[in-house]
Amino acid sequence: MILSGHNLTIGYRDRVVGNHLDISLKAGEVLALLGPNGGGKTTLLKTLLGLLPPKGGEVRLGDRPLASYTLRERARRIAYVPQSHGATFGFMVETFVLMGRTAHGTLFSRPSTADRAIAARMLERFGIAHLADRPYTNISGGERQLALLARALAQEPKFVVLDEPNHAMRAADRAFLLRQGVRMADGEVRTVLNRAQLEALYGEKLTVFQDRDSGESAFLPG
């Protein structure tokens, strides 16, 4: 199954944000959408998720238009990780991750043994199992981002879309770079996320830091 946007024009009633955008994800892929603020990322995401109708072109999920799916059907196939998440209620981290399982039951149904096993597996996958009994409001911003990723994958979706994640190099398979509504690059993370591409994307010089143990790179302004 493929989630795809074809020759999309995205925007709102009174303005166009981007034109001629083609984007696709294969089932099981994780896509990181990166770009400066105001560049069209959130508008494109809302369009791909069906929250905003395209002004032109079409979004398809498999062989059907996305608009033909119910909200629950979409939730079982597509997970979304926002750029940030305001911590309002002090849910335990395990409970927060379990919320991803509501796509497979109802909002008020009790989590099953299988649901809890899936949540525990996701907590382990992102190295935050030790936070399971901590209030979501009492963990760091980076830990919250990992909890958001765990919750998204607990949905067992076909597709995961991340809006400018802190952990793109670790979590994503592919990256889509968007600036002022124009696609600048699209491809495998380790190919696309290099200093030259990111400096062009954000319009500023970056410094590269590399972890000696993991070999992972980080890019910081300056």
Textual characterization of the structure:
This protein has 222 residues and is an alpha/beta fold. It is 28% helix and 31% strand. It has 8 helices and 11 strands. Strands 6-7-3-8-9 form a 5-stranded mixed β-sheet, with helices on both faces. Strand 1 and strand 2 form a beta hairpin. It is globular and about 45 Å long. The mean pLDDT is 87.
Outline of this structure?
With 222 residues, the chain is an alpha/beta fold. The protein has helices at residues 41-48, 71-75, 93-98, 113-125, 141-154, 168-171, 189-192, 195-202; strands at residues 2-12, 15-26, 30-34, 56-61, 64-65, 78-81, 159-163, 174-179, 182-188, 206-210, 217-221.
What key phrases describe this protein's structure?
single chain, 222 residues, alpha/beta, four-stranded antiparallel sheet, 8 helices
Tell me what portion of residues adopts beta-strand conformation. Answer: 25-35%
Task: Classify the secondary structure makeup into a structural class.
Answer: alpha/beta
Q: Catalogue the unreliable spans.
A: none
Distance between the termini: 41 Å
- Percent range of helical residues: 25-40%
Quaternary structure: single chain
Biggest beta sheet attributes: 5 strands, mixed
Largest sheet: spatial strand order: 6-7-3-8-9
SS element count, helices: 8
Q: If you compute it from the alpha carbons, what radius of gyration comes out, rounded to the nearest whole angstrom?
A: 18 Å
Calculate the mean pLDDT score and round it: 87
Order of helices and strands: EEEHEEHEHHHEHEEHHEE
Number of strands: 11
The outline comes out as globular
